[in-house]
Specification:
Blueprint lengths: L8 H12 L3 H14 L4 E7 L5 E6 L9 H4 L26 H7 L2 E7 L6 E7 L2 E2 L3 E3 L4 E7 L6 H5 L4 H18 L4 E6 L2 E6 L4 H9 L1 H5 L1 E8 L2 E8 L11 E5 L2 E2 L3 H11 L11 E7 L4 E2 L10 E2 L2 H17 L11
Parallel strand pairs: 1-8, 12-14
Antiparallel strand pairs: 1-2, 2-7, 3-4, 3-7, 4-5, 4-6, 8-9, 10-11, 11-14, 12-13, 15-16
Bound molecules: adenosine-5'-diphosphate and magnesium ion.
The site of adenosine-5'-diphosphate has 22 residues, from helix 2 and helix 4.
Length: 337
């Protein structure tokens, strides 16, 4: 008799969900990234009880056609890559085809979408991994994804979630990261039916101020550096605006928020002479690099990346920041595209 057995799909999806979906904020991140990949210009986020009860994201992106609906919830099914060579030049935020299957395995999910060209909109549900057949419904072009009762079928996991306030704070942080890196998209964030953040489509500098406040941007200097096929744009706070925590550090690689040891080190070094050891710099920086020179397929949540030429990136970041800190007003009139 076999002792090794293939696991049923529902269980496989629940295990995979453990890697990607840790709390409501991680589900929100995946759902928002899907809306962005779908080309949305307006995204509304409605959260109830810190996301423990409901996360609803409504976008005006290109939508999902009726025939694709069941595949959207299937594991390893994606519209974003199709061949091995695509892995080396990923331009979208998603590509693993795992998020919706994972979320659907550990919640009550409702996906409603309409793609122009279809006769009508469709919706499909998943509850603890059991997926229904798509049914016709009504909706304008775009997608609404509702996630209710996250981890309702994994009580051990649900128990680890924190209070409503803490979970919402995590959701807000995810929202800020996404909003900071997509200034051209209008966002609306509601919690328990109250608007918490309403952001118009603007340019990057205006978005930084809208999200992080005037105090930050008035204490910061512009960064705009270019070398070969790398560029670094953004704002770094002067040492006078240093923080006691690392709560205001945003670094994006090709529009994706990342936490990277190498980058952190380069920034710490750049601030070394001007910042006290127990203080932390505040910055919002956007690194653009040829997608072929960075591997984003390192970690399921893609929070880590691997650079092909790590040393060159380190030097570039260090020198760029070091330079503006040394003469903060030199580039005050440069523009972020
Ligand atoms: P991935 O984003 O890695 O492709 P997901 O599980 O997050 O995987 O989504 C599966 C597929 O469902 C996507 O490739 C996309 O085609 C479709 N999809 C998901 N959300 C949306 C959305 N908001 N708008 C349009 N299509 C979507
Ligand atoms: Mg996705």
């Amino acid at each position: 008799m076999n002792v090794i057995k293939l696991l049923p799909d529902v269980l496989i999806n629940q295990i995979a969900a453990g890697e990607v979906i840790e709390r409501p904020a991680s589900a929100l991140k995946e759902i928002l990234e899907n809306s962005i990949d779908a080309g949305a210009t307006e995204i509304t986020v409605q959260i109830m009880q810190g996301g423990l009860n409901l996360i609803r994201v409504t976008d005006n992106g290109k939508g999902i056609s009726g025939i694709d609906m069941p595949l959207a919830l299937a594991r390893h099914a994606t519209s974003k890559i199709s061949a091995q060579e695509d892995l080396h030049k990923i331009a979208s935020l998603g590509f693993r085809g795992e998020a919706l299957a994972s979320i659907g395995a550990v919640s009550r999910l409702l996906l409603t979408s309409y793609q122009s060209g279809d006769k009508h909109a469709w919706h499909i549900q998943a509850e603890g991994g059991q997926v229904t057949c798509p049914e016709p419904t009504a909706r304008g072009v775009g997608t609404t994804l509702e996630v209710r009762d996250l981890f309702f079928n994994l009580p051990a996991r649900r128990k680890f979630l924190k209070t409503e306030t803490t979970e919402f704070a995590h959701c807000e942080e995810v929202f800020r990261r996404i909003a900071l890196s997509h200034a051209h998209i209008a966002f609306n964030l509601q919690h328990n039916n109250k608007t918490r953040n309403h952001l118009y489509a603007v340019d990057t500098l205006q978005r930084i101020t809208a999200v992080l406040g005037k105090e930050f941007s008035q204490s910061a200097v512009l960064v705009s550096e270019q070398a070969n096929d790398i560029s670094l744009q953004g704002m770094v706070a002067l040492p006078t605006y240093s923080r006691s925590a690392r709560d205001l550090q945003y670094f994006f690689v090709n529009g994706r928020y990342v936490r990277d040891k190498l980058i952190s080190h380069a920034l710490r070094e750049a601030y070394r002479d001007v910042l006290h050891l127990d203080r932390h710099p505040a910055f919002v920086l956007y690194l653009q690099i040829n997608p072929q020179n960075v591997d984003v397929n390192v970690h399921p949540t893609k929070a880590e990346v691997r650079f092909r030429d790590a040393r060159a990136i380190h030097q570039f970041v260090f020198h760029s920041i070091n330079k503006v800190l040394a003469s903060p007003h030199r580039q005050a009139d440069s523009q972020i595209p």
